[in-house]
Amino acid sequence: MATQGSVLAVDIAAFSAQLLNHRELSPRARTIIEAVTDVLPGTGVNLYLFVSENESQYWVPQATTGDVTVHESMVAADRGTLGLLAAKDEALVFSQNELVREQYAHLNVRRTLNSLAYLPLRMHGDLFGAIEILSFDGPIFETSLAALQSVTEVAASALADAVSYERERNSALSSITRITQLYDLEKVFSSTLELDQLLPIIGLKFKEVLECQAVNVWLLQPDESLLLMHQAGMDPTVQEGETQKPGESLAGDVSDNGEPLLIESREDERLAKRNAGIEDGAIFSLMVGPLIDRGALVGVVEAVNRLDGMPFDEDEMFALTSLTETAVGALHNASLLMAERKVEILEALVKTSGEITSTLDMDRVLQAIVNGPATVVPYERAGIALDERGGIQLKAVSGTTQLNADEPQYRGMRDILRWGAILKEPLLIAQHGDEIDSDREETRAKFLEYFAETGMRACHIIPLADEEGRVGILAFESSDPDFLSEAHLEMIQVLASQATVALRNASLYREVPLISVLQPLVERKKKFLALDKHRRVAWTVGAAAAILFLLVFPLPLRVAGDAVVAPAHMAHLGAEFEGVINRVYVREGDALKRGAVIASLEDWEYRSALAAARAKYEIAIAQMDRALANNDGSEAGIQRAQADYWQAEVNRGQERLNRTAIRSPIDGVVATPQIENLVGHKLKAGESFVDIVDNSQTLVDVAVDGRDAGLLRSGEKVNLKFESFPERTFRGQVLVVSPQGVFKDTEPVFFARVGIANSDAALRSGMQGRGKIVTGWRAAGVVMFRGPAMWIWSKLWSWFGW
Hints:
The chain has six domains: 12-168, Beta-Lactamase; 191-340, GAF domain (Beta-Lactamase); 365-510, GAF domain (Beta-Lactamase), CATH 3.30.450; 572-601 and 660-685, CATH 2.40.50.100; 603-654, no CATH class; 695-800, Beta Barrel (Elongation Factor Tu (Ef-tu), domain 3), CATH 2.40.30.170. The protein is flat. The protein is α+β, with helices and mostly antiparallel strands.
């Protein structure tokens, strides 16, 4: 046999020529193992490459022949006989007696293995690969391996050249693929100019090309913050709609310096900060690229985690930079379209504003408001209602010059506008499918019925109000639930502000004829001028002195109201669990401190459970110590777990035993009569059996008329007198003013809750009296004439409605 007899010579020239006929790695590897089998016929031969990647080393099979196969695509570098070769880096021969099956478990052999040999392939002195030779009929001699030395030298050089060639070819193919993708991306990105449609396309294509877990597209905002406009894939560290600023995040830092960022290590502290509290989907590699359009930053793109689990490298960073350059062009075109639309909207806004401000005729103003925006806002119907004499009246509907609000076709809009009178901010209600976009069930039910009747699918309601109060309600409707863009909403908001001013001016102009009520004042002026000089001077000095007194001299402004002592601070105590009262330590009227024991429950059951838990805990500790003494780690671990469990039971039993003592949660006095007679009484869980009252600090509710509620502030001083103590004046201060009024004799009142020290326990719940709240010092005229002035002002306002 060839393995035992003479060794065939190898024609290196012919062997090299055969290798040169092929450029790829696989054909050359096949040629090499065929050359080895020509020298050693009847053997099985495998060829491996030694690969180092990401601090890991392994053998990768490239070719095999004979009665043997390698069933693994990669073999660990330190495994079995291949591991011995990697450690020694020299030719090895193993006889049948030296081999154990586990040492060559990476091989599937069909015959009994007699001998196993390895020839290392070196390149520039480093281990590059190996030839594995299996003999089934006889041993392999070192002379046979020596004859193959020239083969290994040529093979190593040929394999290294093939690896380099395939890398260059793959790199070229990758570059061509990237160029093709960029060309396709340019066409895809150019397929739309709508920013809302473009951003999802950019995110999806970036994710496909970079083969990553997620892509975040951030756009720069006017305040130099970044807004996450779209997220393709899953990144639990950020959410769409989130904003970030420079110095607060990686995206913000890139937006600040304009430099791309590549993080390859999951140990980077910046990633650790971003991954705080995140377990599933945490970031282990990140790329951030700026979106720069003509030298100006417009946004940032983040690529998160390669799908193959490897970190991003410089090639992916270059690809991301190339993709951002392509995306910037599409974003620029979309921004031009948005700018053009905004110009159109602004032109329409200027035109409409000119129409509503160029006249004081109410009808013309109303028609301009409901019809003017139609050139740029795609609504199908608009309506406006005014606040007249305390009610909401529908005044104009788009496309209608003569309006009868009672007609059936306008009844729905009239009701919706009256309902919208309660709004303080604009409200957009839309219906997508069968769902109404609203948090309130009542709103969803109302608009579901309204949309079903009118065929509309969206309604935008805007309250018209200024510092003087509400003017009216404006509404826009459409059968398209998404008929309003952000630019449209901005225009409507500006239009609403201008419409409010125009409507207020038109309303005032309409009431100008009422100025004739000032005629009596003019006649009095004439009579005054008819007086002689001395009398005019006397009247003038007297009037000036009176006015000066009213304007300058300060007086305390007090707000008075009925006062009632509120219920004292009371604690209702009961047992936390069912039990029988064993002992009572207090009587009615006893003063207690917080934490004092009031009563105790029967506790023999809990003491017994506590003692049993302690005993089992001590047994578990003893058994653990015995196992440790016997070096039985497994039994010691089991007993340690048992000890921990019984320790927890001991703690729980002690806690339950402690809770059999019922303690006072506050400082106070026992208010339950004959409490000592409750010994032996069985309490249910949560059943109250004793009341503790704290009268040291009393609260008094002072009812203040709704007209004076706006003067109340926390911390203001209060003087109170009670019917039970007519000779005493109690002093305190306002703690809180009720945010909601109640009706008393058909008039709204607000309660000022006043805190008063009650150390002698004189005040008791339910006592009534009168309180005066000092709201500050005001001019004498304000204090004296505030009531009449407010009454006159309210009457004038109800008449004229300005």
